Amino acid sequence: MIHDQQAAVDVGTAYGFTPGSPLEQIARVGPGTPMGEVLRRYWQPVALTDKVTQTPQRVRVLGEDLLLFRDGTGRPGLLYPRCCHRGASLYYGGVEENGIRCCYHGWVFDVEGRCLEQPCEPELGLHRDRVRQPWYPVTERYGLVWAYMGPPERKPVLPRYDVFEELGPGQAVHADDSGFSGGGPAELDFNWVSHWENVMDPFHVPILHARFSGNQFVPEMAIMPEVSFSYLDHGIRSESTRTLPDGRTLRRVTEAVFPNLRVVADPRLSLGACDVLGWVVPVDDENFKIFTLFRSADPDRLSQMRTAFGGKRWAELNDEEHRRMPGDYEAQSSQGRISLHTDDHLTTTDQGVTMLRRMMARVARQVADGGDPPGLVFDEKDELVCVRGGNYIEPLTDDSAEATP
Ligand code: FES
Ligand SMILES: [Fe+2]
To answer: Distance from first CA to last CA of the chain, Å, rounded?
Structure first.
C-alpha cells in the first residue's frame, strides 16, 4: 500500500526519461527533405548585394555548399564549388570578365555554369559545351542577391512588395543581414523553425519581453492581448488586440508567409503597414540567417530598433545579464540545435504554432505529391505582394479575423 502511494507521487521524475525528437518533415532543409523541397520552390535571399564582389565566397544555403561571386561585367553567379573537370575548388579560382577560372587547369565557367575555355585542350576545348558546372539562377533586387534552388521548370517570378515599391520622400529600401533585432549572433546557431514559428507566438511578448526580462519594447506590450489566428492562402495571420491606457484599441497584425517570410508588426507599435520584412533562411538544419529589408529615410533605423537590455546591447551583456534579461535568442536557441518537437505540450495559446506546423506539414506533402506550394507567382503581372501586417487603431468591435481550425 505504502509502495503504491509512493509510486503515484513520484510519477514524472526524470529517471528513465527518454528525450523526444524533432518533427523531421518540417525541420530538415537539405535536398530531398519535405520542407527543404518546399523552401526550394521560392526565391531565397543568399547575400547582400554590396557583399558580392569579384572575390569568390563560400556560402551555405539549405544545407548546400556553394560559391558566390560577381563576374567582371557585374553579373552575380552561384555555382557548385567542385570544378566539374577534376574537382579543384573554384574558391581558389580567379574571377574574370565573363566568369571564373579554375586554378588547376584553367577551365572558365560563366555565371550559368557554361564552360567557356579549356586552355590545355586543342582550340580551347572542342567539346567544352558538353560539360556544365552545376549552377543556380540568381538575381538582385532591393539590395539582396536572391537564388532559386528548385526545379528549373517551376521557377516562379521574384515578387515585389508594395511597401518597398511605394517610397516616401527621402526613403529607400535597405537590406540587413546582421541577425534578428532581439539580439544574437549574425548567423543564428539553431534550427530555423524555432525562430519562424515564434512569429506566430504573440503570447511570449508580454511575458519574455516585459514581465520576465523587463520592458524590452514599449510599456503597452506588457498588456496581455486577446489573440485570434487565421489561415491565409499563403500562411498564418495573428491579430493581437490590446486596449491601450487611453481607451483606444490597438490591433497588431503579424503574418508568417510561406515558406519563411516574417511580417512582424513593429513591437514599438508604430502605426501603419509593416515596412520591415525578414526572410528566415536556413543555412542548414542547425543554423540560419535572417535577411531583413526595411524602408526608411534613415539607413540606421534597424540598428536603432534593436532590443535594449537594461540600457545595453545584446553583445554587451555578460552571462549573468543574459540569464537575468533573456530575449528571443536565449529563449529560442535554448530549445536546442533542433527542437525536440514531440516533447512539447502545446496549449490553447500555442494555436498559432500548431496551425503553422500543420500547414508546413500539409504543404510539404502537397509538394512531395507534385503540387505547387502556396503564394508562388508565375506571371510578372501578378508579382506585387500587398503586405497586410502592421499596427492599426480600430474600434474594439472591428475584428475581421476568423480563426479556421
Ligand atoms: S580541376 Fe578545374 S580545371 Fe581541372
Ligand atoms: Fe520575441
So the answer is: 46
pLDDT digits (tens, 9 = 90+) for 231-257: 999 999 999 999 988 889 999 999 999
- CB-ligand 1 contact for 88 (6 Å cutoff): yes
Which cell numbers in the block locate residue 294? 526595411
In 3D space, the residue among 265, 258, 261, 263 whose CA is nearest the CA of residue 231 turns out to be 258
Residues 329 and 218 occupy one common structural domain: yes
Give the C-alpha distances (Å, rounded to integers) separating 104 from 81, 98, 387.
13, 18, 49
Nearest CA to ligand 1 atom 1: 86
Task: Find the 201 Cα to ligand 2 centroid distance in Å.
Answer: 8
Q: Is residue 401 part of a domain?
A: no
> Do 348 and 254 share a structural domain?
yes
- Name beta bridge partners: 262: 256, 278
From the CA of 200, the nearest ligand is 2
Please report, for the domain that includes residue 200, its CATH number: 3.90.380.10
363, three cell numbers: 504543404
23 in a domain, yes or no? no
Find out whether the peptide bond into 56 is cis, omega within 30 degrees of 0: no
pLDDT tens per residue across span 116-168: 999 999 999 999 999 999 999 999 999 999 999 999 999 999 999 999 999 99
Same domain, 207 and 284: yes
- Ligand 1 close to Cβ of residue 102 (< 6 A): yes
Assigned domain for 173 exists: yes
Place of cell 500543420: 358
The total number of structural domains in the chain stands at 2
Q: Tell me which residue has its CA closest to atom 4 in ligand 1.
A: 105
Q: Which three cell numbers stand for residue 146?
A: 536572391
Name residue 77's amino acid. G
Q: How far is the CA of 151 from the centre of ligand 1 (A)?
A: 27
DSSP label of 190 = S
